[in-house]
Amino acid sequence: MNYIQGFVLAVPSASKQAYIEHASKAVPIFREFGMTRMVECWGDDVPIGKVNDFRTTVQAKEDETVVFSWCEWPSRDIYQRGIQRMMEDPRMKEMGEMPFDGKRMIFAGFAPEIDDGGGTEPGYVDGFLIPVAPDKKDAYFDMARRLAPGFLQSGATRLVEAWGDDVRAGKVTDFFRAVHAADGENVVFSWVEWPDKPTRDAGMSQVSQETPPADMPFDGQRLIYGGFMPVLDA
């Protein structure tokens, strides 16, 4: 099973095209380091939460849009070697100034526990960040496996649930602070791929009608979710 490098960042809305071009320039270098896929998704349906949300995760300003992104790697070892090579490669610096505030970007490595579906390029993505305690890990993924068929039957093409594996504290923000993680809690990085937004809207409506588990293995009030439009899939 692949390894996931997950990102959340805030990009000035007016710099959307500049961001896409910047990410596109990085693709061939990342691929040289072993990455197999990069997906960049532009915030489209990102609600404001009562406790936390994607915007507060990266301290997004009014004129900024949240980007939910991930890179897929063949293994954890290749990911780690790739990251090291990336930091040492002068071409990364030659790409020029990033069209966003890198200090507020959060990123980490995640080990997939569930990867169902796939094979088609998504037209819409729902992204999730979930705080889960280690002693609830098995219960969480058991629940996710039970729910996955409902998403796929409702039109989703792929569902991924990945356990925090290389999640570090940041100076400004990080995945732990994003979900207000309690001591010892980990973070799940998850997404659902759909063929298009109308299918997603109908599918999510159908899935939401299902009865949730009586004993949720995480604090649902701190779950972060949002809908995103893919702008790069390479």
Describe the structure.
This protein is 31% helix and 33% strand. The protein has an eight-stranded antiparallel barrel with strand order 1-3-2-8-5-7-6-4, surrounded by four helices. It has seven helices and eight strands; from the N terminus they run βαβαβααββαβαβαβ. The longest helix is centred in the first third of the chain and has 17 residues. It has a single domain, classed as Alpha-Beta Plaits, CATH 3.30.70.100. The chain is globular. It is an alpha+beta fold and 234 residues long.
Parts with pLDDT < 50 across at least 5 consecutive residues = none
Relative helix content: 25-40%
Query: What does the average pLDDT come to?
Result: 95
CATH class: Alpha Beta
Predict the CATH topology. Answer: Alpha-Beta Plaits
**Which H/E pattern describes the elements?**
EHEHEHHEEHEHEHE
| Overall 3D form | globular
- Cα Rg: 17 Å
Taken as a percent bin, the fraction of beta residues is 25-35%
Largest sheet: 8 strands, antiparallel, barrel
By DSSP (H or I, 4+ residues per run), the number of helices equals: 7
Biggest sheet: strand arrangement:
1-3-2-8-5-7-6-4
The end-to-end distance, rounded to whole angstroms, is: 19 Å
Strand element count: 8
CATH second-level architecture: 2-Layer Sandwich
